[in-house]
Structure formats: C-alpha cells, structure tokens
Amino acid sequence: MASLVDLGAQETVLHGHLPLLVAALEWIAAGIDLCAIALLVLGALRFILSVAPSELVPAGERRAAMNEARLQLGVYILAGLELFIVSDVIHTALSLAIGDLLFLLLLVVIRAIISFFLDRELAQIAREKHG
Question: Coiled-coil stretches, from where to where (predicted)?
C-alpha cells in the first residue's frame, strides 16, 4: 500500500492530448520563476547601492536612508514571493500529484507568514518615516 505522499499524478487530458500546452505552461512557469529571481536580485542590488553611500552621512540621516532602503527592498521581496507562488500553482496544476499539492500548501503557508511579518515591518518603517 502506497503512502499518501507517494500518490503520483495520473495521465490527464492535458498530459495525454495536449502535451504542447503542458510544455508551454511549464516554460511559462519557468519564466515566472526567472522574473521572480530577477526582481529579488534587482531589489538586493538597489538596496546595496542605496545603503553603501548612506554610511558616509551623519547617524540621523543614515537611519532614515537605511529605513527607506529597507522599505524598497521589502517591496521587491514581497513581489518576488507573489511571483513564486504563481509559478508553484502552475506547476502543481500540471502535476496533479498529492505530494506536490501538499508541498504547495506548505510553501504558500511559509511565504504567507514571511509576507505577513515583512508587511508589518514595512508598515512600521513607513510610520516612522512619516510620523
């Protein structure tokens, strides 16, 4: 008897009759993954480029510059996480395996928790900036 996680995907209409569509959707999901990675890298580069010069200014201005940089980085991280979730949903829809569905559930929960706390931190930084 197979365990719940070992229950694999079965041939579906998509896989059996529309293999080109499945392949295209896999490429689209891979493209979305690459876009998410590009967003994260771009956000990290912008963060580094904005933090480095702030080390040369007085402490009060440095804190404001650091908070602004963290705010911008957080936006990039949240956008990247959203794109990764989209890609994971596409992969899971194509796979139809119970194990993949459970893995997707775990990923979405982890990413939602990260997003929640990151969003709270960004809101706190924004309040400090404006208030």
Answer: none
Q: How far apart are CA 125 and CA 104, in angstroms?
A: 31
What's the chain's average pLDDT?
A: 84
Query: Nearest 5 degrees, angle CA 2-CA 104-CA 27?
Result: 105
**Alpha-carbon distance 67 to 127, whole Å?**
11
Q: Where are the domains of the chain?
A: 19-25+33-130
Per-residue tokens: 65 = 């510059």
Digit-coded pLDDT (tens) for 40-53: 999 999 999 998 88
Any alpha helices (H) in the chain, and if so which ranges?
13-17, 19-54, 59-95, 98-130
Cα–chain-centroid distance for residue 91?
Answer: 15
